[in-house]
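Course assignment 3, question 2. Fill in each field.
Student: A.L.
Task: Predict the tertiary structure for the chain below.
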Amino acid sequence: MSQKIVNVAVGIILRGEQSFICKRPDDKHQGGLWEFPGGKIEDNETTTQALARELKEEIAIDVHSSEPFMLIEHDYGDKKVRLDIHTVSHFSGEPHGAEGQQGQWVDIDKLSSFSFPKANEAILDKLCS
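Answer field:
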């Protein structure tokens, strides 16, 4: 039986030389690790729509526009994900952990000192190069 692939919209929230990241709740898949915010793309949504909805729910910002950054497929063994990653530098509101999760602005050149899920390594490589 083939595993279902989870389609995820991911936002790299940028302001100057910083990016906003969140810590995954301990009880979630890859819990306790840091991530770029986002979430599952529903069947009736485009990536852009899902990203705007998820970022509103997760970090309370309104996305005005986003740019495609990269696409990653990763198999964790227990779950396969397809990450459709966009950069977001045009938004309103101040991002914060709207669902009680920890969130913070980090200098892009310091992101490598945080623990991210394996699927995010390619994002970090491209963003920090």
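Instructor remarks: Helices lie at 47-59, 121-127. The longest helix spans residues 47-59.
Grade: pending
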